[in-house]
Each structure stands twice: as C-alpha cells, then as structure tokens.
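From the shared-data thread, chain only:
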Amino acid sequence: MKAIEYFKPYYAVIFTSTLKTNDEGYFEMAEKMETLAKTQPGFLGFDSARNTIGISISYWKNLDAIKHWKQQSEHLIAQQKGKTDWYSWYNVKICKVVREYDFKAKK
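Structure, as tokens:
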C-alpha cells in the first residue's frame, strides 16, 4: 500500500467482531461493502482477516472521509443488518497513523 505514504498522516478504522452462528448473507455483504468503500472519496486501502475474531481495517485520508463512509446509505443498511443478524459483538477504533514500515524477506 505504498500509495498511502503520500497521505501521511492518514487514518485507520479498525473493526473487530465476532459473528453469530447464523451468518447467512454476511460474507456477500462484506464483499459488497469493501467494493463500495473503495469508491468513496478519501478511501486509501483495506486489510481483513477472519477466523474466530474478524478484523477489518480500512484506511482513509481524513476524518471527514470516515464520517462520510459511516453515513453512506448502503453502508447504513449493512450496519443495521450487522446489529440485528450477524454480529454477537463488535468494536470500532479510529486511529491516526503517523508512521509505518514493513519488512519483506529476500528471495
């Protein structure tokens, strides 16, 4: 995600969750929301992992972009379905990223 470097500092929304046993339709909606988020102004990137606990991290240019995404009409529908149908628990953290680095092993 080297393109993000041009926007430092930037913001990360960390969404951690556990699913209910009946998660019918969840994964389709999650894919749709990721695709939709990528079209939103200020969106910079996305990482996700799901096992016992799901972790999704979206990256944004600024707090206004995050606010706009939270209020996006299709995302509001997904949020409501998450509360009523899919999640037994979730937590949201909004963090300011001021520095990042990575490592890549040589082949």
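The two ends are 20 Å apart (CA to CA).
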